[in-house]
Every structure is written in structure tokens, then in C-alpha cells.
Amino acid sequence: MLARLLLLFLITPVVELALLIKVGEIVGFWPTIGLILVTGITGSYLARREGLSVWRQLKARLDAGGLPGRELIDGVIILIAGAFLITPGVLTDLVGFLGLLPPTRALIRRYAMKRLERAVRQGTVHVSFGAFGQDGFGVYSEPDVERKGGPEWTGTGHDVPRYRQEIGETTPGRPE
């Protein structure tokens, strides 16, 4: 982990600076500044466009009652890609643009999913699922958790927000 942080915070800026100096020598100072500005503006626009697209897909998946795993991972990739794009540099811009393009984002997503699956299998990452509990925030992810009153909810993910209204329960201090 320390080696990765060293790579990220020390070596990457040095490589970026060397690349910017080399680009500056080839095309000149002002075109290099222009390149930095154009990639930042273009990257911001693309990150916004792709982010909104993924947001619409996420909402559609939730409205259909599904779990938006792919959309959440795409959103994280776009967020990281956007951060790379607003960072001045040639290498970070290249990595950022790769994260915004749907075909390369699919490859990154596939790689990330394999890494996540491996981490879950090895026990280094724990995943739990649940819905809103009796107090509005509790997570019932284990079958042996004893509940106090009320029927067990068996609907789809789409129905979760209306759970309390369906059983006639209200939450103190919260408007219905």
C-alpha cells in the first residue's frame, strides 16, 4: 500500500512535469498551456455528460426494482476520471479520457469487478445487504437478528421507500 501511495504522490507528478516540459519544448509554451486548458474543459464536459448518462441509467435500474451495481461502478470510474482530467498533465489526461470512454470504461469496470470479487472471496472486503430497519436506519443483513413487531417486508428494491406507509407505521419527527 505504501508503495502505491509513493507511486501516486511522488512519481506521477515527476513524470507529468517531465512530459509537460517535453511537450513544451516540442510545441512551445503557449500551445502547451492551451493544451492543458482544452483537455481540462473538454474533460469536464465529457465527465458531466457521461455522469448524467450513468445517473439516468442508475435511476432507471432503481425504478425497475433492480440493484444498480454496474451503474455505481461506472459512476466511481467517471468520478475518478474527472479528477484525473482536472489535474494538469499529459499522463493523467490520457488515463482520465480512457475512464470516460464507454468501451474502455467497460474494460476498467470488468477489471475492477474481478478485483472486488477476489477481495470478497479472500475475506479482505465484506459486503452486507439490507433495507431500512425499525428505527429507519438499522440494517437487517443477518437472518438471526431479532425484530420487534411489524411484518417482514418482502417487496422489490423499488418498493423500499414506501415500506413504512404500507404497514401503517410512522417515524417520529419525520414527515410522511
Q: What descriptive keywords fit this protein?
A:
single chain, mainly alpha
Mean pLDDT over the residues = 78
Helix amount:
55-70%
> What form results from the Cα inertia axes?
flat
How many beta-strand runs? 0
Number of DSSP helices?
6
**Integer tally of domains:** 2
* Strand residues, percent: under 5%
As a whole number of angstroms, the C-alpha radius of gyration is 23 Å
Question: How is the biggest beta sheet arranged?
Answer: none
In N-to-C order, the SSE pattern is HHHHHH
End-to-end separation: 46 Å
**What class would the helix/strand composition place it in?**
mainly alpha
**Regions with little confidence, pLDDT below 50 for 5+ residues:** 133-145, 158-164
Can you walk through the features of this model?
By secondary structure, the chain is mainly α. 65% of the residues lie in helices and 0% in strands. α1 packs across α2, α2 (29-63) runs antiparallel to α3 (69-86) and α2 packs parallel to α4 (90-100). The termini are far apart. Residues 133-145 and 158-164 have low confidence and may be disordered.
Q: How are the secondary structure elements laid out?
A:
Elements: H1 2-27, H2 29-63, H3 69-86, H4 90-100, H5 102-122, H6 163-166
Helix pairs in contact: 1-2, 2-3, 2-4, 3-4, 3-5
Short recap of the structure:
This protein is mainly α.
